[in-house]
Design goal:
The complex is a heterotrimer of chains A (322), B (302) and C (321). Chain B is mainly α and 302 residues long. Chain B has 11 helices and no strands. By secondary structure, chain C is of the alpha/beta class. Chain C has a single domain, classed as 3-Layer(aba) Sandwich (Rossmann fold), CATH 3.40.50.300. In chain C, helix 4 packs across helix 5 and helix 5 runs parallel beside helix 6. The chains are: A mainly alpha (322), B mainly alpha (302), C alpha/beta (321).
Chain lengths: 322, 302, 321
């Protein structure tokens, strides 16, 4: 086990190294001089000098690369052009918001998807099965921003049940409300993006779980369980679902990198101050240090999530001994 | 999915493809999917014809109807209404169908061919080439595609559909490759491959003549679902404002509607493009799921 | 002696996309208390389907269309799933093939046996555990291995654990479905001896399914021969070996040197078994038989007691001998 974990960590470091090297190259093989992207005309000569020094733009490319790597290792991505704040602190703050929203959403859609997937696989060939498969497929392939806008239009604009966007109502927070009021306000903002996420995502888990469950139900140990005279519920949950979950955990790891795309789109629609929206805005503002940093951190999070899924898998499946 | 293991009746005279074709005709999923797909195919074909009616008004990129003032709702002249500067939304929608089809199918063809080839070679030759290719696949799978495309368009200042096509093709192949490789690994041990090896047939010939036909059904499945992925990513990118500005796409229509503040005012502008993106993706995925039910006997009814 | 299992005119078919497949037709036999019955036949002849019929563990597209299965004097064919659940494992249990994935890979083997006991008897987990420990000793595994997962067992050990599991609820009747296939010869012999000893010791009745007639001859008091969904001959082991009557049985015997002798693969007759989607109108063995008469083509032979305790389904009867 220890050996495996070390091996995986080495793999993560190598992958991360490759990705940030590609970022470095991308920012240097640009059509024009990289400094023109790092420096904006409005800067003072002093600021220009600081940045030149910070990124070592006066040095040869090999030296620049070493400096770049060194800065990365220290978590120093420089300062944002737009706000002047250190990139790292912006990213940490936004990342927290993203994790808050998307983790809740992933867990909810996972639970719902698995629950329905399990039930419809058991009722193979029924009308309910066909209905949920088509429903799951439809939402799985629905265009994220469109669904977000539709929900906003109906529930926020027409019915006025929810705010039109953001994470909090700033006016309410100026007067330092009680913790309860804060939580209520946050929850009020959270519901609509959360529902959008869950509606869009539960379908993929539902379909995966259904397929995995159908395959598991063909296994010999299910026949054994039936022959043993166990109750249906026990066979379904303890024997079939428990094994059907295993491939879902692996698929979960792969889906993380795809779900980042969802985060980018949903955060943009709902003006949620997360990392996905940050990378879009930073790119539009040509805030390159922030773009670099945000991309690196997103990649790192995906890598770590994959790693976590692998570890979880080894706990769920006793056959795996690393 | 790693163990996707189809066993259609190989003793039958009919080829695998033929058997799949026969079974596909009975699948509700596939029939529904093909039906929706054909509607959009019709729209794509209609696009140049519609423009010819009056290019000055109906060209999706440069055409403007100067007689309208601001965004107007559906009328006889503009079946879906116009945007805020008098561009015909219906012609944009038709062009969007064309773009989605071409991009989706091209990406899917390139990446599935790439993935199938790599999967076959990695699985058949094994050893170091296998390890290297699969590590590469793992690395590519962890790169978040949409942020990558955003960053690239940021760096180059502008985006083109060719770059999107290349990057999507290059980032989508690993999923196919992993599954095809797993399938090849199990096929490699089967007697008919063993006997082909013993009889001295060249490796390339074994792969092309004996292995490839057997992994084709799975490749078909990925061919269809990859189209969905490509359409959705391109739409997302365009929606965020990083699409190819020299063309029109559904994502871009929704983006204009969003940034110009018409999302709540003009449902005739907001609803159609998003619905089209979703429906076309849905149709390809339906076909994929229908195919999966056919080629994966473990999903068959008990 | 009492009959524990009595099957009368059993018919079962599978619904497939091409039409119904007649998997079992006109199967009748009786097993008396304390007896072990062997069922032999080529793969696909319906012997496993018969085992599944008796447990009523048929797949969704299979249906018992006719006949009765009396277990302890009660017909189980009309019984509901709920009633069957109580009979399974406690009344009728089954030894599965270890080569199959019969044990759930994610649970400890001991726990899977305890689970079976606790599903039927209201006893404490600790007592169930002690019982499993005794069963492990009976089949010759160290009880400590209860804490291991299936993948940590060797093939032979897994088979022993599966036997222990089958015995967990003190069943009256055990169906052993090819329990030694895919094990190496030495382990195979050990397991067969084990099963034989346990069956006599616990005085259960057993139905031993195999394609290998030598294994069956070694373990069973009676032998039933199946062909294409029909039971064609049923007699005491010695009687069958002394005096096989059905041409198919005779062919089986002739390719089989002696009871303790070499093990032979079972394909003694040239040709393929018939397609059960559209079985021959008369005798199902007709197309491969070398003693055919006109009647064999059109009329199905009845399964009748031709000598005491010797049943046969063949128009030839003993008359041709």
């Amino acid at each position: 086990m220890g050996k495996y974990i070390i091996g995986r960590i080495v793999q993560i470091i190598i992958t991360f190294f490759i990705v940030i090297s590609i970022i470095f190259l991308m920012f240097r093989v640009m059509p024009s001089d990289p400094s023109s992207f790092l420096l904006t005309p409005s800067m003072t000569a002093e600021a220009k000098q600081t940045i030149r020094k910070q990124f070592g733009l006066d040095e040869p490319i090999a030296v620049q690369y070493v400096i770049y790597l060194k800065n990365f290792i220290h978590g120093d991505f420089g300062n944002s052009f737009y706000s002047g704040r250190p990139v790292m602190s912006i990213i940490m703050e936004k990342m927290l918001n993203t994790i808050f929203l998307s983790t809740t959403a992933v867990i909810l859609s996972y639970l719902i998807g698995i629950f329905i997937g399990k039930a419809i696989a058991w009722k193979r060939g029924s009308k309910a099965e066909k209905f949920f498969v088509i429903l799951g497929l439809w939402f799985y392939t629905t265009f994220t921003p469109w669904l977000g806008i539709m929900f906003l239009w109906i529930f926020a604009f027409k019915l006025k049940w929810f705010p039109l966007g953001g994470m909090i109502t700033p006016e309410k927070w100026i007067f330092d409300p009680s913790l309860f009021e804060k939580i209520c306000d946050l929850g009020h903002h959270l519901i609509l993006p959360l529902i959008t996420y869950v509606v869009l995502w539960f379908g993929s888990y539902l379909l995966l779980m259904r397929n995995s469950m159908l395959e598991t139900l063909k296994e010999d140990y299910i026949l054994t369980a039936r022959a043993k005279g166990l109750k249906e519920k026990v066979i379904k949950n303890r024997h079939a679902a428990r094994n059907a979950m295993l491939p879902i955990v692996t698929a979960f790891a792969i889906s993380i990198s795809f779900s980042i795309a969802g985060a980018v789109l949903i955060e943009t629609i709902f003006s949620w101050p997360g990392i996905g929206r940050t990378i879009v805005e930073a790119t539009l503002r040509q805030d390159y240090p922030l773009v670099q940093g945000a991309f690196a951190v997103i990649t790192m999070v995906v890598l770590l999530a994959n790693f976590a899924a692998d570890i979880a898998y080894s706990y769920l499946d006793p056959r795996i001994t690393y | 999915m790693e163990t996707l293991n189809y066993t259609l009746d190989k003793t039958e005279k009919k080829s695998l493809i033929r058997q799949i074709w026969d079974l596909a005709g009975r699948s509700t999923f596939i029939k529904l999917g093909v039906f929706i797909m054909l509607i959009f195919g019709g729209m794509a074909v209609l696009s140049p014809i519609w423009i010819q009616i009056n290019p000055a008004i109906y060209d999706p990129i440069i055409g403007v109807d100067l007689s309208v003032n601001g965004s107007v709702g559906p009328s006889f002249k503009h079946p879906l209404g116009t945007d805020d500067i008098g561009k015909d939304l219906f012609s944009q929608l038709l062009r969007g169908s064309q773009v989605a089809f071409i991009l989706g199918i091209m990406v899917s063809l390139i990446s599935t061919t790439l993935g199938t080839t790599i999967g076959l070679f990695a699985g058949y030759y094994g050893k170091i080439s296998d390890t290297l290719l699969m590590r590469l696949a793992d690395i590519i799978l962890t790169v978040p595609i949409l942020p990558l495309l955003i960053v690239i368009s940021g760096i180059f200042g502008t985006q083109s559909n060719w770059i999107i096509l290349l990057i999507l093709s290059f980032t989508f192949w690993p999923v196919t490759a992993r599954v095809i490789r797993a399938q090849t690994l199990s096929l490699r041990e089967r007697p008919f491959i063993e006997s082909a090896k013993v009889s001295g047939i060249s490796n390339t010939r074994i792969i092309v003549k004996h292995l490839a036909p057997n992994v084709l059904p799975i490749a078909f499945y990925y061919l269809t679902v990859t189209v969905t992925g490509a359409i959705l990513v391109e739409a997302g990118l365009s929606f965020l404002g990083f699409g190819d500005p020299s063309n029109m796409s559904w994502g871009m229509m929704l983006q204009w509607c969003f940034v110009k503040g018409y999302v709540f005012k003009a449902p005739y502008w907001m609803i159609p493009p998003g619905l089209c993106i979703s429906l076309l993706s849905f149709s390809f995925y339906l076909i994929g799921v229908g195919l999966e039910e056919i080629v994966n006997p473990r999903l068959k009814k008990r | 002696m009492d009959s524990v299992l009595e099957i009368k005119n059993l018919q079962m078919s599978y619904d497939t996309s091409e039409g119904p497949v007649s998997a079992l037709d006109n199967v009748s036999f009786t097993i008396m208390a304390g007896e072990a019955m062997g069922l032999v036949g080529e793969s696909g002849c319906g012997k496993t389907s018969l085992g599944m019929c008796i447990m009523k563990l048929l797949p969704g597209n299979a249906k018992i269309t006719h006949g009765e299965i009396f277990f302890n004097g009660e017909d189980i064919v009309p019984k509901t799933e709920d009633e069957m659940r109580k009979i399974r494992w406690k009344g009728i249990s089954m030894i599965f093939q270890a080569a199959m994935n019969a044990l759930n890979p994610v649970y400890k083997v001991g726990d899977q046996i305890i689970e079976a006991i606790m599903a039927h008897d209201t006893i404490k987990k600790k007592e169930a555990k002690e019982k499993v420990s005794d069963l492990y000793k009976l089949v010759g595994i160290d009880p400590k291995r209860m804490e291991n997962y299936p993948h940590e067992y060797s093939g032979g050990m897994r088979q022993r654990a599966i036997i222990a599991m089958a015995l967990a609820c003190d069943p009256k009747f055990i169906i052993a479905d090819e329990p030694t296939t895919a094990l190496d010869v030495i382990v195979q012999d050990e397991i067969i001896d084990e099963i034989k000893i346990i069956q006599k010791k616990l005085n259960m009745i057993m139905m031993y399914i195999s394609h290998d007639i030598s294994v069956i001859a070694e373990t069973c008091d009676k032998i039933g021969v199946m062909y294409a969904g029909n039971l064609i001959e049923y007699a005491n082991t010695l009687a069958l070996f002394d005096n096989p009557l059905h041409p198919y049985t005779i062919a089986l015997m002739s390719s089989f040197p002696s009871i303790e002798g070499l093990k032979t693969k079972l394909n003694p007759v040239p040709g393929e078994p018939p397609n059960l989607l559209n079985p021959p109108k008369g005798c199902r063995f007709y197309p491969r038989c070398s003693y055919t008469r006109e009647i064999c083509k059109n009329e199905r032979p009845e399964f009748v007691e031709i000598e005491t305790d010797h049943f046969l389904a063949c128009h030839r009867g003993i008359s041709w001998k």
